Amino acid sequence: MTLTAAALFSFNGVVSKVILTSGDVSAPRLTELRSAGAFLCLALVLAVAAPERLRVTRRELPLLVFYGICGFALVQWLYFVAIERLPVGIALLIQFTAPVLVALWARFGRHEPVRKRVWAAIVLSLLGLSLVSEAWSGLSLDGMGVAAALVAALALAVYFVVGEHGVGTRDPLSLVCLAFFVAALFWALLLPWWSFPFGELGQSVSLLGNLADASLPVWALVLWMIVPGTIFPFALSIGALRHLPATIVGVVAMAEPPVAALAAYLWLDESLAAFQIAGGLVVLIAIALAQTARPVDTGRAD
Fold first, then answer.
1. What is the pTM of this model?
2. Among 251, 238, 243, 236, which residue's Cα sits nearest to residue 290?
3. Which structural domain range is residue 8 located in?
């Protein structure tokens, strides 16, 4: 289930990049669409299957608002900005350093016992990222894209930490649903729906790269992004937590960056240099160390 979720998330990164590169829908608008679509689908399922799970107490509101904005609205937007400017695999590698930040928060923010391997994770992640960015050549990657991916890693760490607290009082599916609602509302306030360029959704765009001769309407790509690219992988990754500890789910989910890089290579013809591939492997090792640095499995690690 975790591997399938990782594959769907990876493929969704390529689909999203095609939408963004077409120029018809901006990163904020795409985030707005994804948040609203995911919320509506999840809310419909819960309203039919277990409507009581959608009830919210006044005490929960501050956490849900903070979680929805930082853990969902900003994570998605920053990720879209990053993949628009960077190869998909590299953007995900940088963003996936979030577990290192979570381990540091556990050590210094919560004063939890953390295994010494966290320090090796920090060193390896910095080394790996320097190889990925080819720092010795003056950073060959787009600066704005790297900055977006780094801030996305910070926002993703917030997603992990706050989500860990949230599932202590609420089931994961309703938590995700309500967080998507907050994210959708956040973007609707910033970018009202009456100004949305709905006409652009009917435009056909090239699928780019090795599929440049083929085209699809933007709405079809958006539909894929929302259902198989968001709803299905979230449901699978949450369901996996019923069968595996969160740490193991997190380590298995590390398949996402390399799978995304492979998908981007096969579809978009995005290739990585040998040093970048080596750096990616080092970053993955660092993430694995960070995921297992906390001795107690208490949180979600999607």
1. 0.86
2. 251
3. 2-291
